[in-house]
What does this fold into?
Amino acid sequence: MSGPGERELRLRARTQAHYDRYPFRFDQRAIVREKLENRVMGRAIRALAGRSARILDVGCGACRVAQMVRREAGGGRVVGVDLSLATLRAAARHAPGPLVNADNQNLPLRSGCADLVISNGVLMVTPDAQASFRELARITRPGGTLVVSVYDLRSWYYPVYRYGSPIVRGLRDRIGDTGLRLTLFPLWHVGVLGLLAVALRRPCWLPLEVSWNLFHDQLTTPHCTFHTREELEGWAREAGLRVEEGRREAARQLVTLRCVKPALG
It folds into this structure.
């Protein structure tokens, strides 16, 4: 099998540099609770309550999965994997546990090692989302569960990123981060607080630095693809997985699949 091409290596390096510069830290208690109570991955975690399960959070960011497992499935052991060392260092201060710095297209993990694999909003910023999906399927054990969320091609966010992201990146090139903090970012921060209040049905305060990094996660990520539920289901079938559930989540920004890897024999 040939190694990654020059374009793929370049995209990977740019994405890693982006998240080292703006580490993902969106891990407020209300956010974690909402994901645990209302999201597909929350139900998958609750299903493991009382079991000594091995759980992999690939693209772990702020280690929200580890926080959810501690709340609902205390016997589970979570390993977080992320491409960005800066993000892992930030996460380690709030959610201590095993952390691995690795590329999700080439995970240093044996096949079939995890009872539950979660990848929430990560595959679409990798150079090859389908290759990343295959890698997640590989490390899921026979009889285990894979939960994957990616940006939905049919969502309101698609035109926001497609047309807004080049504008914001171009503006950053002209006025720098300092200029963005004084112009677009205050509007963003107020808007996000409003959206969170509606989604959570209660006010939720984001520290300015967390909101700043989220701003860049949503609007200046160097590479991002969008996908449909049908496309993800096709990837699952090709990887030999059975799709158990599919739904749109996060104000219809994400499409999520819960898949099961058939048991051997």
Observations:
- The domain at 6-152+225-260 is CATH 3.40.50.150 (Rossmann fold).
- The CA atoms of residues 8 and 186 lie 34 Å apart.
- The two ends are 29 Å apart (CA to CA).
- The longest helix spans residues 157-182.
